[in-house]
Amino acid sequence: MKIKKLARQEAQKIAAGEVVERPANIVKELIENSLDAGARHIMLSVKQGGKKYIRIVDNGGGMSPEDAKICFERHTTSKIKTIDQLQNINTFGFRGEALASICSVAKVTITTKQKDTLEGLELSLENGAIEKTKIVGTQTGTTITITDLFYNVPARKKFLKATTTEWNHVVTLFKAFALDNLAVHFILEHDDATVYNCPPVQQITERITQLFQEPLTNHVASLTTFEKDDITISGALTTQQYARYDRGGIFFFVNNRWVKNYRLISALTKGYLNVLPSGRYPAAAIAITVNPKTVDINVHPKKEEIQFLNPRLVESAITAAVKTTLENQLSKHLKRTVNLAPEPVAPFSSDPFPLPFTPTPLQKEEKKEPKIQNIPFPQKEEQPQQQEVPKEENKQIAASKNYTLLSQYKKTYLLLEKEEGLFIVDQHAAHERILYERFADRFNQVAVVRLLFPHSITLSTGDIDLLEPHLELFHKYGIEIERSGKDQLAVKATPVFFKNQPINDLITQTIGWVKELGALDPQDFYKKITEKLRAQMACKAAVKAGDVLTTKTMEQLLDDLETTNNRFTCPHGRPTSWMFSLNDLERKFKRKL
Ligand code: ADP
Ligand code: MG
Protein backbone atom coordinates (compact mmCIF):
# COMPACT_ATOMS: atom_id res chain seq x y z
CA MET A 1 0.00 0.00 0.00
CA LYS A 2 1.43 3.34 -1.05
CA ILE A 3 -1.12 5.80 0.23
CA LYS A 4 -0.79 6.59 3.90
CA LYS A 5 -2.71 8.99 6.00
CA LEU A 6 -0.31 11.63 7.28
CA ALA A 7 0.09 11.90 10.98
CA ARG A 8 -2.03 14.77 12.32
CA GLN A 9 1.06 16.78 13.16
CA GLU A 10 2.54 16.40 9.70
CA ALA A 11 -0.69 17.44 8.06
CA GLN A 12 -0.81 20.52 10.23
CA LYS A 13 2.72 21.51 9.36
CA ILE A 14 1.81 21.42 5.69
CA ALA A 15 -1.37 23.40 6.24
CA ALA A 16 0.59 25.90 8.31
CA GLY A 17 2.60 26.75 5.23
CA GLU A 18 -0.45 28.48 3.83
CA VAL A 19 -0.48 30.98 6.64
CA VAL A 20 3.08 30.97 7.87
CA GLU A 21 5.74 31.57 5.30
CA ARG A 22 7.76 34.07 7.22
CA PRO A 23 7.89 35.86 10.56
CA ALA A 24 5.79 38.77 9.30
CA ASN A 25 2.85 36.41 8.67
CA ILE A 26 2.94 35.36 12.32
CA VAL A 27 3.16 38.95 13.44
CA LYS A 28 0.09 39.72 11.38
CA GLU A 29 -2.01 36.98 12.91
CA LEU A 30 -0.89 37.90 16.40
CA ILE A 31 -1.61 41.60 16.07
CA GLU A 32 -5.01 40.85 14.53
CA ASN A 33 -5.87 38.62 17.47
CA SER A 34 -4.78 41.29 19.94
CA LEU A 35 -6.88 43.91 18.22
CA ASP A 36 -9.83 41.52 18.11
CA ALA A 37 -9.39 41.06 21.84
CA GLY A 38 -9.81 44.81 22.27
CA ALA A 39 -6.19 45.63 23.13
CA ARG A 40 -5.26 49.32 23.44
CA HIS A 41 -1.61 48.64 24.06
CA ILE A 42 0.38 46.26 21.87
CA MET A 43 4.07 45.71 22.24
CA LEU A 44 5.84 43.63 19.65
CA SER A 45 9.42 42.45 20.12
CA VAL A 46 11.36 40.49 17.55
CA LYS A 47 14.89 39.17 17.30
CA GLN A 48 16.76 38.47 14.07
CA GLY A 49 13.91 39.83 12.03
CA GLY A 50 11.57 37.43 13.83
CA LYS A 51 13.42 34.29 12.80
CA LYS A 52 14.65 33.69 16.31
CA TYR A 53 12.00 35.25 18.51
CA ILE A 54 8.64 37.01 18.30
CA ARG A 55 6.74 38.21 21.34
CA ILE A 56 3.53 40.16 21.54
CA VAL A 57 2.19 41.61 24.75
CA ASP A 58 -1.36 42.97 24.68
CA ASN A 59 -3.75 44.39 27.24
CA GLY A 60 -6.85 42.93 25.60
CA GLY A 61 -9.56 40.85 27.22
CA GLY A 62 -7.44 37.72 27.65
CA MET A 63 -8.72 34.14 27.64
CA SER A 64 -10.24 31.94 30.26
CA PRO A 65 -8.12 28.90 31.18
CA GLU A 66 -10.53 26.65 29.27
CA ASP A 67 -10.30 28.79 26.14
CA ALA A 68 -6.54 29.08 26.42
CA LYS A 69 -6.22 25.31 26.47
CA ILE A 70 -7.99 24.88 23.16
CA CYS A 71 -7.28 28.11 21.30
CA PHE A 72 -4.38 26.58 19.39
CA GLU A 73 -6.37 23.63 18.17
CA ARG A 74 -7.54 23.68 14.60
CA HIS A 75 -10.84 25.37 13.87
CA THR A 76 -11.14 26.89 17.28
CA THR A 77 -12.40 30.39 17.18
CA SER A 78 -14.49 32.60 19.37
CA LYS A 79 -15.43 34.70 16.40
CA ILE A 80 -17.95 32.79 14.29
CA LYS A 81 -20.09 29.75 14.70
CA THR A 82 -21.40 29.16 11.21
CA ILE A 83 -20.19 29.81 7.71
CA ASP A 84 -23.04 32.27 7.14
CA GLN A 85 -21.47 34.71 9.51
CA LEU A 86 -18.42 34.99 7.30
CA GLN A 87 -19.93 37.62 5.07
CA ASN A 88 -20.52 40.29 7.66
CA ILE A 89 -17.74 39.55 10.02
CA ASN A 90 -15.93 42.57 11.38
CA THR A 91 -13.17 40.96 13.34
CA PHE A 92 -9.96 40.09 11.56
CA GLY A 93 -9.45 36.43 11.95
CA PHE A 94 -12.19 33.97 11.29
CA ARG A 95 -10.50 30.83 10.15
CA GLY A 96 -9.69 29.72 13.65
CA GLU A 97 -6.43 28.25 12.48
CA ALA A 98 -3.76 30.87 12.88
CA LEU A 99 -2.65 29.82 16.32
CA ALA A 100 -2.92 26.15 15.36
CA SER A 101 -0.67 26.73 12.36
CA ILE A 102 1.86 28.74 14.28
CA CYS A 103 2.03 26.21 17.10
CA SER A 104 2.73 23.41 14.67
CA VAL A 105 5.86 25.06 13.22
CA ALA A 106 7.39 26.91 16.19
CA LYS A 107 7.73 26.74 19.95
CA VAL A 108 5.01 28.83 21.57
CA THR A 109 4.29 30.13 25.05
CA ILE A 110 0.92 31.71 25.84
CA THR A 111 0.31 33.66 29.02
CA THR A 112 -3.17 35.03 29.50
CA LYS A 113 -5.47 36.46 32.14
CA GLN A 114 -8.95 37.89 32.09
CA LYS A 115 -9.98 41.01 33.95
CA ASP A 116 -11.91 39.59 36.83
CA THR A 117 -9.53 36.81 37.79
CA LEU A 118 -6.47 36.98 39.96
CA GLU A 119 -4.38 34.33 38.35
CA GLY A 120 -3.33 33.81 34.82
CA LEU A 121 -2.41 30.70 32.91
CA GLU A 122 0.82 29.96 31.12
CA LEU A 123 1.03 27.25 28.49
CA SER A 124 4.10 26.02 26.66
CA LEU A 125 3.53 24.23 23.39
CA GLU A 126 5.71 22.16 21.11
CA ASN A 127 4.69 20.40 17.94
CA GLY A 128 1.18 21.68 18.42
CA ALA A 129 0.67 20.10 21.84
CA ILE A 130 0.79 21.40 25.39
CA GLU A 131 4.07 20.56 27.08
CA LYS A 132 3.67 22.53 30.30
CA THR A 133 0.87 24.33 32.15
CA LYS A 134 1.50 26.84 34.93
CA ILE A 135 -0.60 29.21 37.03
CA VAL A 136 1.10 32.59 37.02
CA GLY A 137 0.61 36.08 38.30
CA THR A 138 0.30 38.36 35.30
CA GLN A 139 -1.45 41.47 34.01
CA THR A 140 -4.78 41.31 32.21
CA GLY A 141 -4.30 40.49 28.58
CA THR A 142 -2.31 38.02 26.57
CA THR A 143 1.37 37.51 25.91
CA ILE A 144 2.43 35.11 23.17
CA THR A 145 6.07 34.22 22.65
CA ILE A 146 7.26 32.35 19.61
CA THR A 147 10.76 30.98 19.30
CA ASP A 148 12.60 28.77 16.86
CA LEU A 149 10.41 29.25 13.83
CA PHE A 150 10.42 26.15 11.60
CA TYR A 151 12.64 24.27 14.03
CA ASN A 152 10.76 21.13 13.03
CA VAL A 153 10.37 21.95 9.33
CA PRO A 154 13.94 22.35 8.03
CA ALA A 155 12.72 22.52 4.43
CA ARG A 156 10.88 25.75 5.21
CA LYS A 157 13.54 27.17 7.43
CA LYS A 158 15.87 27.16 4.44
CA PHE A 159 13.57 29.60 2.66
CA LEU A 160 13.75 32.26 5.32
CA LYS A 161 15.52 35.29 3.96
CA ALA A 162 18.25 37.46 5.41
CA THR A 163 17.45 39.12 8.73
CA THR A 164 17.08 42.55 7.12
CA THR A 165 14.58 41.21 4.60
CA GLU A 166 12.43 39.55 7.25
CA TRP A 167 12.75 42.60 9.47
CA ASN A 168 11.59 44.87 6.67
CA HIS A 169 8.49 42.74 6.20
CA VAL A 170 7.76 42.99 9.90
CA VAL A 171 8.23 46.76 9.86
CA THR A 172 5.90 47.24 6.90
CA LEU A 173 3.26 45.20 8.60
CA PHE A 174 3.71 47.01 11.88
CA LYS A 175 3.37 50.35 10.12
CA ALA A 176 0.21 49.20 8.39
CA PHE A 177 -1.42 48.25 11.69
CA ALA A 178 -0.26 51.41 13.39
CA LEU A 179 -1.64 53.55 10.56
CA ASP A 180 -4.94 51.75 10.69
CA ASN A 181 -5.48 51.85 14.46
CA LEU A 182 -4.77 55.32 15.72
CA ALA A 183 -6.28 54.73 19.16
CA VAL A 184 -3.89 51.91 19.95
CA HIS A 185 -0.46 52.40 21.51
CA PHE A 186 2.00 50.36 19.42
CA ILE A 187 5.59 49.60 20.28
CA LEU A 188 8.08 47.70 18.16
CA GLU A 189 11.40 46.41 19.44
CA HIS A 190 14.15 44.75 17.46
CA ASP A 191 16.99 42.89 19.13
CA ASP A 192 16.09 44.54 22.44
CA ALA A 193 16.11 48.11 21.12
CA THR A 194 12.91 50.14 20.78
CA VAL A 195 12.49 51.09 17.15
CA TYR A 196 8.99 52.63 17.17
CA ASN A 197 6.97 53.90 20.07
CA CYS A 198 3.60 55.20 18.93
CA PRO A 199 1.20 56.38 21.63
CA PRO A 200 -2.42 56.88 20.56
CA VAL A 201 -3.09 59.83 18.26
CA GLN A 202 -6.10 61.62 16.81
CA GLN A 203 -4.87 62.28 13.31
CA ILE A 204 -3.34 59.99 10.74
CA THR A 205 -0.76 62.70 10.01
CA GLU A 206 0.46 62.44 13.61
CA ARG A 207 0.83 58.70 13.20
CA ILE A 208 2.84 59.25 10.06
CA THR A 209 5.15 61.53 12.01
CA GLN A 210 5.66 58.76 14.56
CA LEU A 211 6.44 56.14 11.94
CA PHE A 212 8.33 57.91 9.19
CA GLN A 213 11.24 60.26 8.94
CA GLU A 214 12.01 63.46 7.19
CA PRO A 215 11.66 64.45 4.43
CA LEU A 216 8.48 62.41 4.13
CA THR A 217 6.94 63.78 7.31
CA ASN A 218 7.53 67.35 6.16
CA HIS A 219 5.33 66.93 3.14
CA VAL A 220 2.22 65.18 4.36
CA ALA A 221 -1.29 66.46 3.78
CA SER A 222 -4.59 65.10 5.01
CA LEU A 223 -6.63 63.69 2.20
CA THR A 224 -9.70 65.71 1.33
CA THR A 225 -12.38 63.25 2.36
CA PHE A 226 -14.40 61.91 -0.52
CA GLU A 227 -17.87 60.48 -0.08
CA LYS A 228 -20.05 59.15 -2.86
CA ASP A 229 -21.97 56.03 -3.84
CA ASP A 230 -21.45 54.39 -0.47
CA ILE A 231 -17.70 54.87 -0.77
CA THR A 232 -15.72 56.96 1.68
CA ILE A 233 -12.06 57.74 1.13
CA SER A 234 -9.94 59.38 3.79
CA GLY A 235 -6.36 59.37 5.00
CA ALA A 236 -3.16 61.25 4.26
CA LEU A 237 -0.59 61.48 1.51
CA THR A 238 2.62 63.18 0.57
CA THR A 239 2.50 66.28 -1.60
CA GLN A 240 4.36 66.89 -4.84
CA GLN A 241 7.44 67.84 -2.89
CA TYR A 242 8.11 64.26 -1.93
CA ALA A 243 8.84 61.31 -4.19
CA ARG A 244 10.44 57.93 -3.83
CA TYR A 245 11.47 55.24 -6.24
CA ASP A 246 9.35 52.48 -4.73
CA ARG A 247 5.76 51.85 -3.73
CA GLY A 248 6.77 50.87 -0.19
CA GLY A 249 5.29 54.00 1.34
CA ILE A 250 1.79 53.33 0.04
CA PHE A 251 -0.77 51.71 2.34
CA PHE A 252 -4.40 51.00 1.56
CA PHE A 253 -7.02 49.90 4.04
CA VAL A 254 -10.39 48.61 3.04
CA ASN A 255 -12.92 48.54 5.85
CA ASN A 256 -10.01 48.72 8.29
CA ARG A 257 -8.08 45.91 6.73
CA TRP A 258 -4.68 46.46 5.15
CA VAL A 259 -4.76 45.25 1.57
CA LYS A 260 -2.35 45.01 -1.31
CA ASN A 261 -3.88 45.90 -4.62
CA TYR A 262 -1.97 47.25 -7.56
CA ARG A 263 -5.06 48.80 -9.13
CA LEU A 264 -5.55 50.98 -6.09
CA ILE A 265 -1.93 52.04 -6.36
CA SER A 266 -2.33 53.06 -9.97
CA ALA A 267 -5.50 54.96 -9.13
CA LEU A 268 -3.47 56.82 -6.53
CA THR A 269 -0.56 57.63 -8.83
CA LYS A 270 -3.01 58.77 -11.47
CA GLY A 271 -4.01 61.53 -9.07
CA TYR A 272 -0.39 62.70 -9.15
CA LEU A 273 -0.27 62.80 -12.93
CA ASN A 274 1.81 65.72 -14.16
CA VAL A 275 3.20 66.42 -10.72
CA LEU A 276 5.36 63.36 -10.15
CA PRO A 277 7.59 62.05 -12.93
CA SER A 278 6.93 58.51 -14.06
CA GLY A 279 8.65 55.90 -11.96
CA ARG A 280 8.37 58.03 -8.81
CA TYR A 281 5.86 57.33 -6.10
CA PRO A 282 4.32 59.18 -3.23
CA ALA A 283 3.71 57.82 0.25
CA ALA A 284 0.14 57.51 1.42
CA ALA A 285 -2.13 55.89 3.96
CA ILE A 286 -5.60 55.69 2.54
CA ALA A 287 -8.67 54.25 4.19
CA ILE A 288 -11.50 53.12 1.97
CA THR A 289 -14.84 52.34 3.52
CA VAL A 290 -17.35 50.46 1.40
CA ASN A 291 -20.41 48.38 2.01
CA PRO A 292 -18.94 44.99 3.09
CA LYS A 293 -21.25 43.29 0.61
CA THR A 294 -19.45 44.95 -2.31
CA VAL A 295 -16.07 43.52 -1.48
CA ASP A 296 -14.57 40.04 -1.37
CA ILE A 297 -11.74 39.63 1.08
CA ASN A 298 -11.32 35.92 0.69
CA VAL A 299 -9.55 35.83 -2.65
CA HIS A 300 -6.26 35.07 -0.92
CA PRO A 301 -5.58 32.72 2.01
CA LYS A 302 -3.76 35.46 3.90
CA LYS A 303 -6.55 37.91 3.14
CA GLU A 304 -4.11 40.50 1.87
CA GLU A 305 -5.76 40.91 -1.47
CA ILE A 306 -9.19 42.13 -2.19
CA GLN A 307 -11.74 42.26 -4.94
CA PHE A 308 -14.33 44.97 -5.35
CA LEU A 309 -17.63 44.35 -6.98
CA ASN A 310 -17.14 47.58 -8.87
CA PRO A 311 -13.42 48.43 -8.86
CA ARG A 312 -13.82 51.37 -11.26
CA LEU A 313 -16.00 53.31 -8.84
CA VAL A 314 -13.48 52.93 -6.06
CA GLU A 315 -10.54 53.74 -8.30
CA SER A 316 -12.03 56.91 -9.69
CA ALA A 317 -12.97 58.00 -6.18
CA ILE A 318 -9.34 57.62 -5.13
CA THR A 319 -7.99 59.53 -8.10
CA ALA A 320 -10.50 62.31 -7.51
CA ALA A 321 -9.70 62.55 -3.80
CA VAL A 322 -5.98 62.72 -4.49
CA LYS A 323 -6.33 65.38 -7.18
CA THR A 324 -8.52 67.56 -5.01
CA THR A 325 -6.17 67.23 -2.10
CA LEU A 326 -3.13 68.20 -4.12
CA GLU A 327 -4.93 71.16 -5.64
CA ASN A 328 -6.12 72.38 -2.25
CA GLN A 329 -2.66 71.93 -0.89
CA LEU A 330 -1.19 74.01 -3.63
CA SER A 331 -3.62 76.87 -3.21
CA LYS A 332 -3.05 76.85 0.53
CA HIS A 333 0.66 77.09 -0.09
CA LEU A 334 0.04 79.83 -2.58
CA LYS A 335 -1.90 81.91 -0.09
CA ARG A 336 0.81 81.42 2.45
CA THR A 337 3.68 82.41 0.22
CA VAL A 338 2.09 85.17 -1.80
CA ASN A 339 0.48 86.55 1.33
CA LEU A 340 -1.45 89.28 -0.35
CA ALA A 341 -4.24 91.18 1.31
CA PRO A 342 -6.93 91.42 -1.39
CA GLU A 343 -8.99 88.43 -2.45
CA PRO A 344 -8.98 86.56 -4.67
CA VAL A 345 -5.37 85.56 -4.62
CA ALA A 346 -4.12 85.88 -8.13
CA PRO A 347 -2.46 82.85 -9.61
CA PHE A 348 0.58 84.61 -10.97
CA SER A 349 2.95 87.18 -9.67
CA SER A 350 3.79 88.51 -13.10
CA ASP A 351 2.24 88.76 -16.48
CA PRO A 352 4.09 87.00 -19.24
CA PHE A 353 2.12 88.63 -22.03
CA PRO A 354 2.12 92.28 -21.17
CA LEU A 355 2.54 94.44 -24.24
CA PRO A 356 0.25 96.30 -26.64
CA PHE A 357 -1.71 93.50 -28.22
CA THR A 358 -3.11 92.08 -25.01
CA PRO A 359 -6.82 91.78 -25.65
CA THR A 360 -9.32 93.48 -23.41
CA PRO A 361 -10.75 90.56 -21.47
CA LEU A 362 -7.43 89.93 -19.83
CA GLN A 363 -7.02 93.56 -18.88
CA LYS A 364 -10.41 93.57 -17.30
CA GLU A 365 -9.47 90.55 -15.30
CA GLU A 366 -6.27 92.16 -14.24
CA LYS A 367 -8.08 95.05 -12.61
CA LYS A 368 -9.20 92.58 -10.01
CA GLU A 369 -5.65 91.69 -9.15
CA PRO A 370 -4.04 95.08 -8.88
CA LYS A 371 -1.24 94.30 -6.46
CA ILE A 372 0.55 91.75 -8.49
CA GLN A 373 0.18 92.61 -12.12
CA ASN A 374 2.78 94.21 -14.29
CA ILE A 375 5.86 92.70 -12.77
CA PRO A 376 8.13 92.07 -15.73
CA PHE A 377 8.49 88.70 -17.25
CA PRO A 378 11.84 87.11 -16.42
CA GLN A 379 14.32 88.17 -19.02
CA LYS A 380 17.65 86.91 -20.01
CA GLU A 381 20.43 89.27 -19.14
CA GLU A 382 20.93 90.52 -22.68
CA GLN A 383 17.30 91.22 -23.40
CA PRO A 384 15.83 94.60 -22.55
CA GLN A 385 13.19 94.68 -19.85
CA GLN A 386 9.72 94.90 -21.31
CA GLN A 387 8.22 97.15 -18.73
CA GLU A 388 8.84 99.36 -15.76
CA VAL A 389 8.14 97.96 -12.33
CA PRO A 390 6.07 100.24 -10.18
CA LYS A 391 8.02 100.63 -6.95
CA GLU A 392 5.08 100.02 -4.63
CA GLU A 393 4.38 96.64 -6.10
CA ASN A 394 7.96 95.64 -6.08
CA LYS A 395 8.00 96.17 -2.35
CA GLN A 396 4.91 94.07 -1.96
CA ILE A 397 6.55 91.12 -3.54
CA ALA A 398 9.79 91.63 -1.66
CA ALA A 399 7.90 91.70 1.60
CA SER A 400 6.32 88.36 0.91
CA LYS A 401 9.58 86.68 -0.07
CA ASN A 402 10.20 83.59 1.95
CA TYR A 403 13.73 82.94 0.76
CA THR A 404 17.14 84.53 0.53
CA LEU A 405 18.88 84.19 -2.78
CA LEU A 406 22.49 83.15 -2.22
CA SER A 407 23.91 82.93 -5.72
CA GLN A 408 23.93 81.29 -9.13
CA TYR A 409 26.12 78.24 -9.45
CA LYS A 410 27.72 77.26 -12.78
CA LYS A 411 25.33 79.66 -14.51
CA THR A 412 22.75 76.89 -14.19
CA TYR A 413 21.57 76.50 -10.61
CA LEU A 414 20.14 79.05 -8.24
CA LEU A 415 21.07 78.56 -4.60
CA LEU A 416 18.69 79.85 -2.01
CA GLU A 417 18.06 79.65 1.65
CA LYS A 418 14.57 79.02 2.96
CA GLU A 419 13.06 78.25 6.31
CA GLU A 420 13.01 74.53 5.40
CA GLY A 421 16.58 74.33 4.18
CA LEU A 422 19.00 74.97 1.36
CA PHE A 423 17.38 74.87 -2.08
CA ILE A 424 19.02 74.28 -5.41
CA VAL A 425 16.86 75.29 -8.35
CA ASP A 426 17.55 74.31 -11.95
CA GLN A 427 16.96 77.60 -13.73
CA HIS A 428 15.98 76.08 -17.05
CA ALA A 429 13.67 73.40 -15.65
CA ALA A 430 12.01 75.93 -13.37
CA HIS A 431 11.47 78.52 -16.06
CA GLU A 432 10.22 75.86 -18.44
CA ARG A 433 7.52 74.87 -15.97
CA ILE A 434 6.54 78.48 -15.34
CA LEU A 435 6.10 79.16 -19.03
CA TYR A 436 4.38 75.88 -19.71
CA GLU A 437 1.71 76.55 -17.11
CA ARG A 438 1.21 80.08 -18.32
CA PHE A 439 0.76 79.05 -21.90
CA ALA A 440 -2.03 76.82 -20.70
CA ASP A 441 -3.66 79.56 -18.73
CA ARG A 442 -3.39 82.45 -21.08
CA PHE A 443 -4.15 80.38 -24.11
CA ASN A 444 -5.23 82.63 -26.97
CA GLN A 445 -4.30 85.78 -25.13
CA VAL A 446 -0.75 86.12 -26.24
CA ALA A 447 0.82 89.50 -26.93
CA VAL A 448 2.33 89.28 -30.38
CA VAL A 449 4.85 91.15 -32.46
CA ARG A 450 3.87 91.62 -36.07
CA LEU A 451 6.92 91.27 -38.25
CA LEU A 452 7.55 94.09 -40.68
CA PHE A 453 9.04 91.65 -43.14
CA PRO A 454 7.51 88.18 -42.84
CA HIS A 455 10.08 85.56 -42.14
CA SER A 456 10.07 83.00 -44.90
CA ILE A 457 10.82 79.31 -44.48
CA THR A 458 11.42 76.81 -47.24
CA LEU A 459 10.36 73.19 -46.77
CA SER A 460 9.37 70.27 -48.96
CA THR A 461 5.95 70.56 -50.61
CA GLY A 462 4.92 67.28 -48.96
CA ASP A 463 5.70 68.57 -45.48
CA ILE A 464 3.88 71.81 -46.07
CA ASP A 465 0.84 69.94 -47.41
CA LEU A 466 0.90 67.95 -44.21
CA LEU A 467 1.22 70.95 -41.94
CA GLU A 468 -1.14 73.35 -43.67
CA PRO A 469 -4.37 71.99 -42.14
CA HIS A 470 -2.85 72.46 -38.68
CA LEU A 471 -1.48 76.00 -38.91
CA GLU A 472 -4.36 77.02 -36.63
CA LEU A 473 -2.49 75.35 -33.80
CA PHE A 474 0.24 77.95 -33.98
CA HIS A 475 -2.21 80.84 -33.99
CA LYS A 476 -3.34 79.90 -30.53
CA TYR A 477 0.14 80.62 -29.30
CA GLY A 478 0.48 83.85 -31.19
CA ILE A 479 2.50 82.46 -34.06
CA GLU A 480 0.95 83.47 -37.34
CA ILE A 481 2.04 81.36 -40.25
CA GLU A 482 0.65 81.24 -43.76
CA ARG A 483 1.51 79.26 -46.79
CA SER A 484 3.10 81.58 -49.28
CA GLY A 485 3.97 79.16 -52.03
CA LYS A 486 4.29 75.50 -52.96
CA ASP A 487 7.26 75.00 -50.67
CA GLN A 488 7.18 78.21 -48.68
CA LEU A 489 5.77 79.32 -45.36
CA ALA A 490 5.66 82.92 -44.18
CA VAL A 491 5.84 83.69 -40.47
CA LYS A 492 3.99 86.96 -39.97
CA ALA A 493 3.84 87.33 -36.22
CA THR A 494 5.36 85.75 -33.13
CA PRO A 495 4.62 86.15 -29.46
CA VAL A 496 6.55 88.90 -27.73
CA PHE A 497 8.34 86.48 -25.48
CA PHE A 498 9.31 84.31 -28.42
CA LYS A 499 10.67 86.88 -30.75
CA ASN A 500 14.32 85.87 -30.64
CA GLN A 501 13.63 82.18 -30.86
CA PRO A 502 14.27 79.92 -33.84
CA ILE A 503 10.81 79.35 -35.24
CA ASN A 504 12.12 77.01 -37.96
CA ASP A 505 12.92 74.31 -35.45
CA LEU A 506 9.50 74.53 -33.93
CA ILE A 507 7.90 74.13 -37.34
CA THR A 508 9.97 71.12 -38.37
CA GLN A 509 9.32 69.52 -35.01
CA THR A 510 5.61 70.06 -35.42
CA ILE A 511 5.71 68.37 -38.81
CA GLY A 512 7.35 65.41 -37.11
CA TRP A 513 4.56 65.25 -34.53
CA VAL A 514 1.87 65.47 -37.20
CA LYS A 515 3.44 62.44 -38.87
CA GLU A 516 3.79 60.58 -35.63
CA LEU A 517 0.37 61.31 -34.19
CA GLY A 518 -1.65 61.50 -37.40
CA ALA A 519 -3.25 58.11 -36.75
CA LEU A 520 -4.94 59.27 -33.55
CA ASP A 521 -8.54 60.36 -33.53
CA PRO A 522 -8.86 64.13 -34.04
CA GLN A 523 -9.54 64.94 -30.40
CA ASP A 524 -6.54 63.00 -29.08
CA PHE A 525 -4.39 64.30 -31.87
CA TYR A 526 -5.26 67.87 -31.03
CA LYS A 527 -4.68 67.36 -27.33
CA LYS A 528 -1.33 65.65 -27.74
CA ILE A 529 0.01 68.02 -30.29
CA THR A 530 -0.97 71.17 -28.39
CA GLU A 531 0.69 69.75 -25.35
CA LYS A 532 3.87 69.03 -27.27
CA LEU A 533 3.85 72.42 -28.84
CA ARG A 534 3.33 74.05 -25.49
CA ALA A 535 6.18 72.09 -23.88
CA GLN A 536 8.46 72.87 -26.80
CA MET A 537 7.73 76.56 -26.75
CA ALA A 538 8.30 76.65 -23.01
CA CYS A 539 11.59 74.86 -23.50
CA LYS A 540 12.73 77.20 -26.25
CA ALA A 541 11.68 80.39 -24.50
CA ALA A 542 13.04 79.44 -21.11
CA VAL A 543 16.39 80.64 -19.85
CA LYS A 544 19.04 78.05 -20.57
CA ALA A 545 21.65 76.40 -18.46
CA GLY A 546 24.66 78.64 -18.93
CA ASP A 547 22.71 81.92 -19.12
CA VAL A 548 24.02 84.47 -16.66
CA LEU A 549 21.06 85.98 -14.84
CA THR A 550 20.81 89.22 -12.91
CA THR A 551 19.73 89.06 -9.29
CA LYS A 552 16.49 90.71 -10.24
CA THR A 553 15.78 88.13 -12.92
CA MET A 554 16.63 85.28 -10.61
CA GLU A 555 14.31 86.67 -7.96
CA GLN A 556 11.57 87.11 -10.49
CA LEU A 557 11.96 83.55 -11.61
CA LEU A 558 11.83 82.26 -8.05
CA ASP A 559 8.81 84.37 -7.18
CA ASP A 560 7.05 83.09 -10.27
CA LEU A 561 7.96 79.52 -9.50
CA GLU A 562 6.43 79.80 -6.02
CA THR A 563 3.05 80.46 -7.52
CA THR A 564 3.16 78.09 -10.47
CA ASN A 565 1.16 74.90 -10.69
CA ASN A 566 3.08 71.63 -10.74
CA ARG A 567 6.20 73.55 -9.89
CA PHE A 568 8.22 70.62 -8.60
CA THR A 569 8.95 69.17 -11.99
CA CYS A 570 9.52 70.54 -15.46
CA PRO A 571 7.08 69.50 -18.22
CA HIS A 572 9.37 66.58 -19.06
CA GLY A 573 9.25 65.36 -15.49
CA ARG A 574 12.69 66.49 -14.34
CA PRO A 575 12.77 68.03 -10.87
CA THR A 576 12.97 71.81 -10.75
CA SER A 577 14.59 71.89 -7.35
CA TRP A 578 16.18 69.91 -4.58
CA MET A 579 16.19 70.70 -0.93
CA PHE A 580 18.74 69.90 1.77
CA SER A 581 17.34 70.45 5.22
CA LEU A 582 19.52 71.64 8.05
CA ASN A 583 18.98 68.21 9.49
CA ASP A 584 20.36 66.56 6.32
CA LEU A 585 23.43 68.76 6.43
CA GLU A 586 24.05 68.24 10.11
CA ARG A 587 23.91 64.54 9.58
CA LYS A 588 26.32 64.77 6.67
CA PHE A 589 28.74 66.77 8.78
CA LYS A 590 28.22 64.42 11.68
CA ARG A 591 27.09 67.20 13.96
CA LYS A 592 24.05 65.09 14.55
CA LEU A 593 23.48 61.35 14.33
P1 ADP B 1 -9.29 33.28 14.98
O1 ADP B 1 -8.59 34.59 15.25
O2 ADP B 1 -9.59 33.11 13.53
O3 ADP B 1 -10.46 33.06 15.85
P2 ADP B 1 -6.88 32.16 15.94
O4 ADP B 1 -6.27 30.83 15.78
O5 ADP B 1 -6.10 33.33 15.49
O6 ADP B 1 -8.27 32.12 15.23
O7 ADP B 1 -7.27 32.35 17.46
C1 ADP B 1 -8.10 31.41 18.09
C2 ADP B 1 -8.82 32.01 19.25
O8 ADP B 1 -7.91 32.29 20.30
C3 ADP B 1 -9.50 33.33 18.98
O9 ADP B 1 -10.78 33.17 18.44
C4 ADP B 1 -9.55 33.97 20.36
O10 ADP B 1 -10.68 33.53 21.06
C5 ADP B 1 -8.33 33.40 21.04
N1 ADP B 1 -7.21 34.36 21.03
C6 ADP B 1 -6.13 34.35 20.24
N2 ADP B 1 -5.29 35.37 20.52
C7 ADP B 1 -5.85 36.08 21.51
C8 ADP B 1 -5.49 37.26 22.25
N3 ADP B 1 -4.37 37.95 21.99
N4 ADP B 1 -6.34 37.69 23.22
C9 ADP B 1 -7.48 37.02 23.49
N5 ADP B 1 -7.86 35.91 22.83
C10 ADP B 1 -7.09 35.43 21.85
MG1 MG C 1 -6.78 35.13 14.48
Describe what is shown at a glance:
This protein has 593 residues and is of the alpha+beta class.
Question: How would you sum up this structure, described in words?
Answer:
Helix 1 (8-19) crosses helix 4 (98-105), helix 2 packs parallel to helix 6 and helix 12 packs across helix 17. By secondary structure, the chain is of the alpha+beta class. The radius of gyration is 32 Å and the shape is elongated. It has 18 helices and 23 strands. It binds adenosine-5'-diphosphate (ADP) and magnesium ion. Adenosine-5'-diphosphate binds at residues 29, 33-34, 37, 58, 60-63, 67, 71, 76-79, 93-100, 142.
Which key terms come to mind for this protein?
23% strand, binds adenosine-5'-diphosphate, alpha+beta, 593 residues, 23 strands, binds magnesium ion
Bound ligands, each once: adenosine-5'-diphosphate, magnesium ion
Rg calculated over all Cα atoms: 32 Å
Largest sheet: 8 strands, mixed
Alpha plus pi helix count = 18
By DSSP, the count of extended strands is: 23
Structural class estimated from helices and strands: alpha+beta
Which strand order spans the largest sheet, edge to edge or round the barrel? 5-4-3-6-2-1-7-8
Q: Helical proportion? A: 25-40%
From the spread of the alpha carbons, the general shape counts as elongated
Mean pLDDT: 81
User: How much of the polypeptide forms β-strand, as a percent range?
Assistant: 15-25%
Task: Indicate the low-confidence ranges by residue numbers.
Answer: 83-94, 337-367, 369-399
| End-to-end gap | 67 Å
